[in-house]
Amino acid sequence: MAHHYLCKGSDLAEGCARGFDPRGEGADTIFVVRKDGRLHAYRDACPHYGDTPMAWRKDAYLDGAATRIVCSAHGAQFAIDTGICTLGPCLGQALTPVPLAIAAPDDIYAVMEET
């Protein structure tokens, strides 16, 4: 497993989400959400249809109240803490979680298989 640097923890505010391209593929492939002080990371792909990106624009992963992750292509809504679809065409399916590692002093890394 490889650790890919994402950002400083202080760069991700409470109630916000941010996309990352940890392998330099040219598009965000994972995103991280900070909710209630905890970080949650997922692949940037809706389970409803293949690898459909979730955001309709850069870092736009959450609903207006920042209480759910929303797929812009299908309108599916996902719980931030579990990634499980709670409303929409992929009800009961889940986003693919991405493990994170936090290193001193405040660095966030995605822990991913090497390709």
Automatic annotation (TrEMBL):
Keywords: 2Fe-2S, Iron, Iron-sulfur, Metal-binding. The keyword Iron applies. It comes from the Bacteria. It holds the Pfam family Rieske. Residues 4-90 form the Rieske domain. Gene3D superfamilies: Rieske [2Fe-2S] iron-sulphur domain (2.102.10.10). This is Rieske (2Fe-2S) protein. It comes from Telluria antibiotica.
